[in-house]
Design a protein that fits this description.
Aminopeptidase; alpha+beta; 10 helices; about 350 residues
Length: about 350
């Protein structure tokens, strides 16, 4: 049986979280809270944390299946992300069956809640995890490397930053064009053509990241974009740079550093996909160091739709029955031409 988290499961979740796998680097690095904490916060009345926790507790002939999985909704978008699964596959004791059943259940729940896609970020060397996700229907669509800012080299202090401005609502079309130019078609299909991904919606501390957006516009076209997702633990950067402006990568990183201020204890990360040329070398030149890599996978989920039941109206039924061919009024059969 798979059931949602209940406060009476506190002790069980506390044990299960000791041996699990984090499946989304952004969540793990910018919201480094325990699965138990996330489950408890989401169970509070009026909570906006948006984390769903599900527990499998089932006895079978082959053994006892005990585990948990968590997913969270991407703020303002019909998408969910798998963020944690326990136990780890190395634990054995039916872990493969536990993962498969939990992931299948998450797909169903995401669809029931209006989700169109369910994502996860798998460890780059996680072939075993990937095989289970693939068996459930997920497909890999991109490789993402994550860099952490350490300190800028002094020789780049004089680089002129790109003249970024705040993102506006009217930039949606230009951002969509830039995304389509930078992003391979297969990735666009996996992300639903990034519908809403580069639009800004409000967030709240402790729930969804606060988001800010900046663009570089030249001659009426958007050539670069910067998004900053902020939490108490750190800032997460995503950038887009037009392929014809790769020589501006250093200036884009300089502009990004100028837009972010880290408070004590906060860290700065930048996620770059392998098809985004020019950014890894620019980040390295500015003092960013790789801290992780993940394979991005997605499953298109079924969205439940409510359709009104078609009911017959007695009054209309009787009217239709009375209008049989024999009861129809006779038409004038005179030929108009005669």
């Amino acid at each position: 049986m798979i059931r949602p988290f209940d406060p009476r499961d506190v002790g069980l979740v506390a044990r299960l979280q000791r041996d699990g796998v984090l499946l989304d680097l952004e969540t793990g690095l910018t919201h480094p809270r325990s699965p138990l904490s996330a489950a408890l916060v989401s169970s509070l009345p009026f909570s906006r944390a948006g984390v769903g926790t599900y527990i499998i507790d089932q006895k079978e002939e082959a053994g006892y299946l005990l585990g948990m999985a968590q997913m969270c909704q991407r703020h303002g978008r019909p998408e969910y992300v798998v963020v944690f699964v326990s136990p780890s596959l190395a634990a054995g004791n039916g872990a493969h069956a536990i993962w498969q059943r939990l992931l299948t259940h998450l797909c169903v729940k995401a669809g029931e809640q209006g989700g169109q896609r369910l994502y996860a970020g798998l460890p780059a060397d996680g072939d075993e995890e990937y095989q289970i996700f693939r068996h459930v229907g997920f497909a890999a669509y991109a490789q993402e490397d994550v860099y952490q800012f350490v300190a800028p080299p002094p020789q780049l202090a004089e680089v002129q930053p790109l003249p970024l401005r705040r993102q506006r609502d009217r930039d949606s079309w230009g951002l969509q064009q830039l995304y389509g130019t930078v992003t391979p078609r297969a990735v666009q299909n996996a992300e639903g053509s990034a519908q809403g991904q580069w639009e800004l919606r409000g967030g709240t501390w402790g729930a969804h990241p606060l988001r800010r957006g900046y663009v570089w516009e030249s001659r009426g076209e958007i050539w670069a974009a910067l998004h900053v997702h902020s939490s108490r633990a750190g800032h997460w950067l995503r950038v887009l740079l037009h392929p014809d402006a790769l020589d501006q990568a250093d200036m884009l990183v300089a502009a990004a550093l100028g837009r972010v201020r880290c408070a004590p204890g906060q860290k700065l990360y930048c996620a770059v996909r392998t098809y985004e040329a020019g950014m890894p070398s620019a980040l390295a030149a500015w003092g960013f160091r790789p801290v992780g890599s993940q394979t991005l996978v997605v499953k298109q989920t079924t969205v439940w739709a409510r359709e009104p039941a078609v009911q017959r109206v007695p009054a209309l039924e009787s009217h239709v029955e009375s209008m049989t061919p024999s009861a129809m009024p006779h038409q004038n059969s005179t030929n108009p031409s005669s």
